[in-house]
């Protein structure tokens, strides 16, 4: 028995390959499924089952392509009308080499959520491992807000039962394999442990330290999560099984001149994935700045599935391939090209660049202390805002900024901040597109502000 | 400018990736095209062109799948009615980054054969590299027998013109990149150099050391090549563009019992890819023995595209994956499974094994000298037979053995030989299937026989 | 926090890399330490600590080379006078990124055995993972016989305390990472689980299902293990820190003629790693047959550290590299070369081969039933022999055969068996070297015998 | 016969592995020799020879370490008193599998320079490949200035003879394998072809288009090359065989606070390898900016072998590993650590950052046109300066800037430019260290200036 975790950075997603005696199962395969095929080939394995723990909202699932190529069956929960695969109920049972895999319905995150329990009948009837999907994570539990406010009570209540009456009773010594790690938009406080057990979570997962079901429900219903617009598309894709391209789009190098020509057309979106510092010095007018590792989390707020995307990345370092992969996983198939040679090729061609000034926290403090007429904009999320923000700031979440009508004069100086300077750089690039001219990005954000000993209210 | 050669063992095929400034072209892609996609992704390249040098008879070409996934156009000669791609004529011209690629029609091996010349206009008008397909190889020229006897004169004549009037005049300093290396069924005497030039070949390629066109034609028309039955299928596939599975079939582990059950059905072919020595000691009744690296050359003589193939390989060493890949390249998509655990699992289950005895050359010499009543069968090809064989032997090429009605009594002792003991082990396995009971394989074949100082006539 | 297990096939050894925030620790590094350096480089990690769980008897440990190249400190138990590194006591504490690692003395397998407990202080005081060395395995506990009979009581008693009073109290939810997996000579019944927990082992490890300390001690003292002669050398090397070559010896291709010349000299040992079936048909006189995956377990019974080793392997399949690696891990640095082209090149050169006949279990049954005058030799280990053997057989463990004076006439027919045919093929090759002429290997051994329904007494 | 080119980016160095029949030779191995060992192991090769074409001045050669680990002999020219290896003369001959390798003394670049000719005696007496070291490159010939002015005539003269009387006569069809590709400091105009032949070079290499020996000598003596200070150290190391660390130093993550503490000590050098744009926005006071791919060419002008180096790189993208590798190849073993988390961790900690402003070419043009009192500094090399520079600029080569006493007032505004903005960013960082406060970097340098249609004189 071997279990291999395939981690997808960006969306912080975990999929798993279970293998035993030449047979394999994959749990929640991602769209770029080459990683599974390579593993199967290298280890001479036959893929027998594809298990899904739930529909998934944050990425396009690769089950159907993988199934078509390998002949493996797809299985998932039965409380949702999937247009493909087979619905399972409690105790449905599978054999994989010398392993037994049992389905266990564990609704809560969604109605159809299901867990998979692995045991080795020849050794013991007890479970050795459980795949919990988005029910429990290391240090957190799944969000229950996806169906809207009306369903939060119902889902929280089911989640309590799933966790406390079905999963935890499997035993402390069971290794727990969740569908997400730290950084996922599917949980707020997932920690960075890559290995945990039901016993460890029972004692240490903050979200499980409740004494009554009601306490659990109240806690869950107070949580605040964001729902990026691309989720809708993921739900549609994953319900029907996505039939788009099976391979990340190929990368067309565009010269500076060619990029300029295309970008002037409508429905083209220019995403610059360099660091905020780099973007600050010189960028192409009209481009969004989403730092590379934030692309999977924030691309979905900015890019529509109908847009033609053009990328500006560092030249080299494989940033381009990473960016395309991140977007591919979110179902973006139309990446039209990238600026060959990076931003340097743009300015070597003497094409015009724009800049965004940065402020240090000391700079901002002086401005505030001297009552300069500035607008301070906090683009962090609600939880962060509530934990403490700079006095006088106004709060608009970065994800909402594009669609928000701002009642700020275009001549006013705006200082944008987040907790580091990354999300605020995206915000600054949005403001520049909205014709604001005097936009500053706060270097280090609230983290540096706090370090400097300045007040957060 | 970079050129990478992708060598496919077994069929000894060379495909190439040319790259320049973020753009790439592939020449004669093989069916398992993952190798190109990986290279493109790793090096952040856009595939722009797929060039075919000719239809290819010895493997399934992967152009169409690769084109579909990348959007690259397919190009080939215009003297054949391909159902896909674009036909080219002399001097058609392509730009790839800072490279220029020119088509040059070079019929001879086939009518539509075409070569591709690479130059770097910014440096020089002269060619630096030429892709010659099956026209010239290192140490040999392509076969001209594929259309049958009637066409040999015509093709040889065209080949002479293509080589002497079109390719060699490009200049001695041009690097030559042929479509095959040593071991290919597309040429008899290709040598093992992986790098050569027109200058080197002009002086040293035995097949170019002729003083007149007529001498060349006579030489070519005397060559003897075998035409394995699967070639027909390759031609059909490659003319229309093959729409079969794009991915090697996955590998079903079969227990000894399960294999026994399936193999008893009709239309199942059991291929044992172990060494002749291993096969000799113990094998499953009815199985063919084709040593692993011979599978690409001899599988096509034995396996029909309608058969269900079951494999016996060594357990481990990645033999299985190799075997499947070799067969996949020849268009065999129905590999039903393999014996899990190898032959050991068969005999551990106390299922019956058969053996084939081996003889040393001394053993055979004694038998012959003492006039034992044995049949000695030479299964090498015509050229080898004519260069010298054991006195009293009968000649049937291994590829013809399956389909040949033998006028040999089933009780007679048969000693089979080739040049080493590998092809003769395949022959021995065929004879066993034909109910011959006393079959011996000559260990070391004519090579050992000759070393021992025995006569070859 | 990430933990990566590096599995060394052959010796079934597990070493581990723990990483957190750019820092790493390695536990029980093997001699061919490139795997760690590559991982460190690829993940941009600084190696901070090298932890040893105990001296190790079954392979050469790579701590010192790794320490020299990286500057990391070496740590181990203090109850043995290591000539390098730092001795630890209970509760010695290390910090690695945001992890805490605590030493816990857990004698039993050896006096200096020590475990390492990992916790994440920011999340919890409780352990999440424990590295148990050779104290507990998945499904077994470590052997306690290494110091000889006199110490077995003492060691078993300490082992009980270490397990039941120190390790298990850490909690059911602790992930357990032992130093060996299935197939190790350091435990008899280790199972093939690659992931386990203290909770799972507490309930399911057969060796922990005792009700009293005394019961545990009695059980342990009844176990029988073999002590291969090379262990002595490993203990010497690992006590002082081995200063031999840091890199597997390079591979000299020897032509058949050259091999013949060298092998005729003294102190050369010829190891043929092909399968028993292959060896059976043709091998070089005087060679030992140890199938490749058995080389790590049985090479140490046959090869002295002063021998010059020459290898015969399959040509291709990377068998050679594997064989050299297996031997390198056991401290064998003088691998002089290998037969280029494999056994085929030997017989193509018309050099003489020998063969060993195989018998099926039916063949043997007939011989026994018809009272043929044969010697039947069982070369399995004591436990296997006691569980059931063929009537009339004599028992000599394969590892003892080389050094045992046999009172069997050289003309007698000997049939050797084990449980499959592999160890018996080694035994047969030893007997051939001892000038026995009529040696047969039983294909399928007791497994096939039992399947055939024949009696084991 | 296979030849694999190992390209080392940064120094644009080519080393080669030649293999034939299980034996291998390496030509000019680099210091981080793992790449050769891996290749040898993966392909089951025995390293037989290590050939050096000359001493090498631009990197530390790895011959001795490689020799020690593999037992292969080292060979080089005999006109220099190497403290290791064996000196060769014309026609010394080696056999590698079925290849013959001949030494050919080809002085010119240095006195001891030697070439290696490969032929395949079984096919032809003629050469198929030649390894020319620093004698000829694709599109250029080696520099002849390393021994100082007095020797230029002598070396040029010898170079002419080596090329025209020894190498080119080998034949047009010979594949040429030089020791450097485009971007090397060992040649000024090497082009980006990765494959060339003597025939192609003879016709197209600008440096070979001379009609007399004297013309060649005059041309060579007019060339201008820079001699970075680290060359001296390379020559010492390579003459004696370097006994420093064999493995790139490991990477210590330093927190912002820790870095601050260490950097305040003497003899610490802080190298920031981010892009000029990134550095411009925020960097640590006192750091040098050398963009990553320029580190191998410009690190040697800045860093002494006694300095303790601390690195600032992007977090992720494997920039760190690349930077360490580049420096390791130049003999820098004391890389003390790197800023964990990149520059972000510095400013999140509210530690002070500095910035350098950029100017566009339009900005600079206005300043010049309006006669602002600025100093314009051209830091390109002599050849570039002479081909055209901005009117009024002063010329100091970037490599000389650190050691040059500037007679510019510290209050004056200085605009630095090169051809792109990279070398000028290094120059700007040097000026900042020299206490110049108003330093501007010209974005796009002369390339953008020229594109804008402004004059270069």
TrEMBL record, chains A, B, C, D:
Pfam families: Lactamase_B, Rhodanese. Transmembrane segments: none annotated. It comes from the Archaea. SUPFAM superfamilies: Metallo-hydrolase/oxidoreductase (SSF56281), Rhodanese/Cell cycle control phosphatase (SSF52821). One of its GO terms (molecular function) is metal ion binding. Keywords: Metal-binding. The keyword rRNA-binding does not apply. One of its GO terms (biological process) is glutathione metabolic process. Residues 264-355, 370-457 form the Rhodanese domain. The keyword tRNA-binding does not apply. PANTHER family: PERSULFIDE DIOXYGENASE ETHE1 (PTHR43084), PERSULFIDE DIOXYGENASE ETHE1, MITOCHONDRIAL (PTHR43084:SF1). This is Rhodanese domain protein. It comes from Methanosalsum zhilinae (strain DSM 4017 / NBRC 107636 / OCM 62 / WeN5) (Methanohalophilus zhilinae). The lineage of its organism: Archaea, Methanobacteriati, Methanobacteriota, Stenosarchaea group, Methanomicrobia.
């Amino acid at each position: 028995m071997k279990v291999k975790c395939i981690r997808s950075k960006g969306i912080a997603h975990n999929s798993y390959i279970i293998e035993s005696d030449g047979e394999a199962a994959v749990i929640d395969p991602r769209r770029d499924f080459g990683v599974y095929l390579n593993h199967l080939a290298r280890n001479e394995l036959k893929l027998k089952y594809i298990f899904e723990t739930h529909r998934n909202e944050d990425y396009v699932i690769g089950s159907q392509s993988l199934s078509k190529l390998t002949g493996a069956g797809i299985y998932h929960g039965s409380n949702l009308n999937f247009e493909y695969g087979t619905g399972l109920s409690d105790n449905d049972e599978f054999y994989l080499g010398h392993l037994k895999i049992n389905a266990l319905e564990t609704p809560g995150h969604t109605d159809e959520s299901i867990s998979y329990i692995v045991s080795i009948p020849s050794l013991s009837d007890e479970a050795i491992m459980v795949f919990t999907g988005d029910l429990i994570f290391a240090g957190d539990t799944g969000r229950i807000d996806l169906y809207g406010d009306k369903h939060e009570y119902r889902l929280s209540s089911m989640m309590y039962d799933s966790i406390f009456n079905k999963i935890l009773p499997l035993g402390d010594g069971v290794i727990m394999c969740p569908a997400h790690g730290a950084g996922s938009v599917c949980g707020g406080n997932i920690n960075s442990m890559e290995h945990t057990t039901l016993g460890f979570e029972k004692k240490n997962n903050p979200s499980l330290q409740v004494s009554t079901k009601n306490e659990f429900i109240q806690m869950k219903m107070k949580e605040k999560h964001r729902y990026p617009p691309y989720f809708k598309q993921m739900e549609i894709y994953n319900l029907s099984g996505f039939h788009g391209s099976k391979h990340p789009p190929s990368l067309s190098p565009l010269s500076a001149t060619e990029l300029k020509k295309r970008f002037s057309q409508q429905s083209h979106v220019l995403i610059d994935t360099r660091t905020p510092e780099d973007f600050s010095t010189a960028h192409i007018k009209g481009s969004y700045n989403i730092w590379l590792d934030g692309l999977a989390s924030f691309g979905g707020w900015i890019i529509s599935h109908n847009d033609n995307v053009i990328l500006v990345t560092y030249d080299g370092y494989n940033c381009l391939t990473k960016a395309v992969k991140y977007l591919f996983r979110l179902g973006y198939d139309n990446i039209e090209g990238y600026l060959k040679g990076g931003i340097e090729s743009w300015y070597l061609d003497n094409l015009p660049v724009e800049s965004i000034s940065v402020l240090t926290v000391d700079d901002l403090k002086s401005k505030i202390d001297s009552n300069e007429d500035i607008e301070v904009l906090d683009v962090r999320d609600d939880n962060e805002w509530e934990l403490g923000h700079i006095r006088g700031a106004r709060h608009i979440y970065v994800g909402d900024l594009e669609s928000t009508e701002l009642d700020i004069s275009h001549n006013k100086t705006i200082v944008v901040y987040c907790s580091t300077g990354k999300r605020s750089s995206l915000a600054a690039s949005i403001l520049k597109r909205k014709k604001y001219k005097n936009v500053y990005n706060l270097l280090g954000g609230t983290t540096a502000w706090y370090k400097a000993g300045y007040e957060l209210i």
